[in-house]
Structures are given as C-alpha cells and as structure tokens.
C-alpha cells in the first residue's frame, strides 16, 4: 500500500509514479479507488504544461494556499442543458463510493445552453474526476490517481497504469509567454455600447427591470500560439487574491480566468457566500485610494447596485437555510487595480441540501445578470451580440462533504492564436454609459498588462 499522507516521507516525481503504479497493481478492493502519495515540491503549472494528456484542469483558491492540477479523465458528467440537481445526483454515487479526497472539477455556462461555435468544446455542464491529480495544500504536496477497479478485465485499472506510464518527467519552470497581442475589436463597440446602456436605462425607468449587467467581449490576436497556462501564469502575477482557473478540454481550446468573486463555499452544512457589486479603480497614492474608496461607499448608484445583489442572495437562500447572517454594511475590498463593495453571508443549511440545490438557487447572481433575473436574462440574450458561453458561469469543485465555486468573471477563451476576453458592468438608475465603458476597460486591463 502507498504510504499515508501524514507520513514524513515524501517522494520525487519518478518515485511517486512508481509507488502509485505498484499500489494500483496490488489494489484488491472493487469499485472506485483513489491512491495518493506525498510528493516533493514542484511547480504544478510547469508540470501540467509538459504533459500531452487531456482534458487538463487547473484551480487555485483565493488564498493561494490550495492549488490543484488535473490530467486525463476517470469519469465525467457532461450535459447539453443546465440541470444542477441532475448533475449532483450523477456524481454523488462516485464520491460516496470512492476515497474522501476525490473531487470533481468543472463548471457551467452562463445560460441554460452553451451556444456559439467558439464554445463547441464546452457543454452547458461539465465536471470531471481527473485521472491524475496533483495537489498543493500550503507547503504539502501530493499526487493521486483515480480509477475504477471492477469487472473481469479491470479495464479502467489498466487505463490508469497507462496514464502513469505516459507522464513526462523532464520539465522545467516555463518562462513568460513569448507572444505579443494586437487588440482587434470590441463587441459591442463604444457607440453600440452607449445605445445599449441607454435602452437599459429606459427599461429601468419603465419598471421592466431594476438592474441589468451588460457584458463586452474583446477579441485579441496573439503573435503565436502558446500553451494557455502560459497566459494564465502571466495573468496570475497581476491578479493576486483571486481564484485562478483553467479548463482545457483539448489542446486547441481553453477557458481561464482570475475571479475575486466567490459564488459559495460549503463545508458540511455551513455555507459562505457574498455579494459583490460596485467598482472603483485603485488610486495612484494612498490618499487618492482613500478618496476612491469613500466615493464607492457613498455613491448612491453603487450602493443601489450592491443592495440589489444582497436582496437577491437573501431571497435565493431562503428555501435552503436554517439560519443566516450578513454584514450590516458593505466593506471595500481592494485588489491590485480595482476595489469593490463586498457583503458576506454565512448560513447553516438544511441537512438535505445538495450542491445542486445551491447552484440552482445562486446562479446567476444579480452581479452578473440583473434583477429581476428572468427579465434580465431575456434582455441579455437580446442585447448582446455574442454568446457568453462559460463567462459569468459557476466554476469550481465538488467533493463528498465540501465544495467551492467562483463566478467566472474576468475570464478569457483561448482558441489557437485567438483570445477573447470578457467583462461586464451593472446598469442601474443613474448609470452613465461612458463611466460604465471605463469600468469594463479597467476590468479587462489586467489581461492586456499580463501580455504586454
């Protein structure tokens, strides 16, 4: 058997692969299995970039303390239309039967169906149990293999062994991306954006909606194709304190992002979520920074937008919670190039609540859609000249007793040498088209800086 993760013994990558191989061969128990060993420190992104196995997933939480890379696929849930409850029901038996550390990583599109040729590799719902998983928790690292050990031929066990044998061990930390970027066009362009904001303000004035989040796609051409993880690595350096994620179903396409916005985190029956709405840039000095923060806290338009998100989250959680608390007043959360109003919720859930229930109730939030949600979704579909795909959808992981999801904002879709970057702005009474355009410019600026 493989040594316990609590053992002081750690292995080099070649040693870990050999130990895992022997553990798989000697495994006698039937059903879902997970074999895991402690690993000497290595750079997860560099390791992933070197491998030829797909799909590939990458996840790092906001604290930067937990990082996971996944290669290959032991099991997947793939759905053409959103049904979070059905998805949860499909993956729950595998989690119940397997080792406690097993997790499905994945996400969902913003809309019920994921449309657009550029999103062909991304179904409406997609979660995978990776074949090979490398994890970092603080300073501790581990390497794990998931496989199904049943049937007369033990086919999946043999597939796991082939995956181990295919791992390349000769890798070095990658350099900065060697590409340049030409900014091509915005969808919509500035005049069309102003018209869309004005029509939205008219609908708000007529009482049709109270808030609408309009998104923009900026299409860029890269000077050369590169591994999407190279782009994410550069993006990570300018977006500390964010969730960082990448989902690559095949070599030619990947969705990635750096989101500060938590959709929810669950541990047992405890749930944490938050309302994020309202934006200002960081100041060039501490004094200017404080001025922008004070403006954000006291701007009626920003507070109104934030209030809509708080009310919607409170209403969404009502059927699931036994008790809950929310910050009395929002705080200003500061990031490298922006600052935002944030209010945090803590809930105790009803015992029979599933992650599918939570996703169904919380997605989409007013921070990425609007209020009331049905009317906002209809207007988004009619107003936007592109398909959002996975932009602004939920991305994260589900385990046996825990789960964590981010909202996939500040994100991009890579297809060969083409990169599409997405960001949005919340329109409420009092919004100004030029100011909202500037807010979106601020939100996409980090990707442009990362690749400049």
Average of pLDDT:
92
Q: What fraction, in percent, of the residue positions are helical?
A: 25-40%
CATH superfamily of the largest domain: Anthranilate synthase
> Which structural class best describes the helix and strand composition?
alpha+beta
CATH class of the largest domain: Alpha Beta
Instruction: Please tell me the CATH architecture of the largest domain by its name.
Output: 4-Layer Sandwich
- Looking at the structure, the CATH topology of the largest domain is Anthranilate synthase
Low-pLDDT segments, ≥5 res: none
- Helical stretch tally: 11
Describe the structure concisely for a colleague.
By secondary structure, the chain is α+β, with helices and mostly antiparallel strands. Helices cover 31% and strands 34% of the residues. The chain folds into 2 domains: 153 residues, no CATH class; 258 residues, Anthranilate synthase (4-Layer Sandwich), CATH 3.60.120.10.
